[in-house]
């Protein structure tokens, strides 16, 4: 079993070897394992894929996991999972920690495109991801959580979920500081804040190579949401569905914000009633990454 | 018996204090032109997306906004109120600019902060430090003038203690959300006053939970509201700028 006190360090270093992005260091320790399949995409695409696997399918109460990633100049690395990361019930109210530190070099791309985190009832989970970038690094982060094991009737029933994503330039200037805290306490249940929404997702697209995708995503989200929002003239022209339209909340809410100097970053926030609709959203919005990483994400 | 001189000595600080109170009330008065009423804190987007459709929803929404205000902004108010120097303020201004990832909320914070700094340095002229800091910051050109740190700075200058400053920040947020609700016709003027009074004890609990925290602990606790507020720019017709 894992020892709650010890921090287990895992690391992957990707550098150019013979002109191709290659793994030069790969260390993983129980309960984590990194797998890097050779043939994820076509051979003309220069990208290293790393799958993060958890023994036992998830994170046990009290686990402290530290991962360090370094993506060298002009390299591409994709980090993903093979299913949702489960955070099991907490034992003796012990919190599980997962810390990720990543350096992304000049003109390099790191894409973190995992499945969602699912916290079981009473789980306590703390996640912190810190990124250090050059001014022309590229970064994709998908960070998302579902409300729990729906088949067991659990909805937002965990005790604590705290997720931090901080992005700094290599001179130490903060570019993006974001912490989301969902905590059950005596004043209220997370369920009450979420209404009927079961999934909260965040997508960050950053850097010069992402500009094109940022523009597509912004247009898409604007179109999706304009249809969902109350539009007086549209409502009048469609009397039949008017009553329903005014009664129900959108099943998926999404919004985009640009951030950083020269608007180099885009964040998309999503709240949805179903996990599947977020997978569909991610598949659609991130499809333009295919030429850079070899295969379309979430297929 | 006190001598006449002793009485005078006692009266002096009381007099200063009473004058400060006029300024403190003025800071919290809605007549102070800081532009708070141009903002709905996401309420308009919440109404148009049917997240808020009646006065019950409004009360829930208001409490959630206050909770998020407590967790995200109070650390900034607390820090500048207790260390009202320019270096600390500029550092917090930069951190808050990176923390407000929602563009709608970020722009609202900048416009209200700039307005407050302009008004406060002109109106509270007995506190020359405000004007000195504003002039020096404008010259630098790198300061974004976010609202919460400037509010803390002003509170500190006007002699609010740190708890009252943080309570005042929750108070003006509540005032502005409720004002927006009346203009969106969700609630009448009397209902608005009732709501404000009903929510006050809850706001006090929120204050106790989030006050006196470090800036490193600032966090979002209402991701759904943040997502909805981000939709403000997609609204077909808008009364408010956020």
TrEMBL record, chain A:
It comes from the Eukaryota. Keywords: Chaperone. One of its GO terms (biological process) is urea catabolic process. InterPro entries: UreD (IPR002669). Pfam families: UreD (PF01774). GO terms for molecular function: nickel cation binding; urease activator activity. GO terms for cellular component: urease activator complex. Belongs to the UreD family. This is Urease accessory protein D.
Automatic annotation (TrEMBL), chain B:
Coiled coil: none annotated. GO terms for molecular function: nickel cation binding. Keywords: Chaperone, Nickel insertion. InterPro entries: UreF, UreF_sf. Signal peptide: none annotated. The keyword Chaperone applies. PANTHER family: UREASE ACCESSORY PROTEIN F (PTHR33620). Belongs to the UreF family. This is Urease accessory protein F. It comes from Vicia faba. The lineage of its organism: Eukaryota, Viridiplantae, Streptophyta, Embryophyta, Tracheophyta.
């Amino acid at each position: 079993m894992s020892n709650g006190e010890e921090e287990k360090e895992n690391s992957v270093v990707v550098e150019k070897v013979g002109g191709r992005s290659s793994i030069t260091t790969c260390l993983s320790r129980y309960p984590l394992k990194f797998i890097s399949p050779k043939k994820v995409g076509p051979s003309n695409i220069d990208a290293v894929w790393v799958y993060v696997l958890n023994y036992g399918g998830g994170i046990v109460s009290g686990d402290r996991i530290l991962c360090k990633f370094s993506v060298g100049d002009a390299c591409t690395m994709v980090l993903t999972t093979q299913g949702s990361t489960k955070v099991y019930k907490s034992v003796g109210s012990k919190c599980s920690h997962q810390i990720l530190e990543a350096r992304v070099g000049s003109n390099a791309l790191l894409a973190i495109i995992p499945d969602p985190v699912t916290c079981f009832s009473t789980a306590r989970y703390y996640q912190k991801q810190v990124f250090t970038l050059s001014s022309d690094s590229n970064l994709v982060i998908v960070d998302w959580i579902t409300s729990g094991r729906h088949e067991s009737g659990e909805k937002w029933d965990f005790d604590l979920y705290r997720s931090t994503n901080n992005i700094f330039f290599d001179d130490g200037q903060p570019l993006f500081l974001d912490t989301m805290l969902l905590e059950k306490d005596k004043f209220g249940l997370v369920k009450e804040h979420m209404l009927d929404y079961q999934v909260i997702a965040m997508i960050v697209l950053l850097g010069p190579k992402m500009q094109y995708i940022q523009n597509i995503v912004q247009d898409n989200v604007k179109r999706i949401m304009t249809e969902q929002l109350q539009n007086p003239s549209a409502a009048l022209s469609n009397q039949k569905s008017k009553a329903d339209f005014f009664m129900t909340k959108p099943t998926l809410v999404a919004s985009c914000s640009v951030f950083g100097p020269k608007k180099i970053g885009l964040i998309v926030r999503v709240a949805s009633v179903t996990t599947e609709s977020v997978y569909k959203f991610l598949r659609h919005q991130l499809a333009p990454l295919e030429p850079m990483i070899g295969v379309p994400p979430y297929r | 018996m006190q001598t006449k001189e002793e009485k005078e000595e006692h009266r002096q600080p009381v007099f200063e204090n009473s004058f400060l109170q006029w300024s403190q009330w003025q800071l919290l008065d809605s007549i102070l032109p800081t532009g708070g009423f141009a903002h709905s804190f996401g309420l308009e987007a919440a109404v148009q997306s049917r997240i808020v459709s009646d006065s019950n929803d409004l009360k829930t929404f208001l409490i959630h906004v206050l909770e998020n205000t407590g967790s995200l902004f109070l650390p900034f108010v607390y820090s500048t109120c207790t260390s009202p120097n320019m270096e600390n303020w500029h550092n917090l201004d930069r951190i808050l600019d990176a923390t407000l990832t929602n563009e709608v909320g970020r722009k609202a914070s900048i416009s209200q902060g700039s307005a407050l700094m302009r008004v406060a340095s002109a109106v509270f002229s007995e506190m020359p430090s405000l004007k000195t800091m504003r002039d020096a910051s404008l010259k630098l050109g790198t300061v974004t003038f976010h609202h919460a740190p400037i509010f803390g700075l002003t509170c500190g200058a006007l002699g609010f203690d740190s708890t009252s400053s943080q309570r005042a920040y929750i108070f003006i947020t509540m005032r502005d959300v409720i004002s927006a609700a009346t203009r969106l016709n969700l609630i009448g003027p009397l209902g608005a006053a009732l709501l404000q009074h009903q929510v006050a004890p809850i706001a006090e609990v929120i204050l106790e939970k989030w006050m006196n925290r470090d800036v490193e602990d600032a966090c979002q606790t209402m991701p759904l509201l943040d997502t909805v507020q981000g939709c403000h720019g997609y609204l077909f017709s808008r009364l408010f700028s956020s």
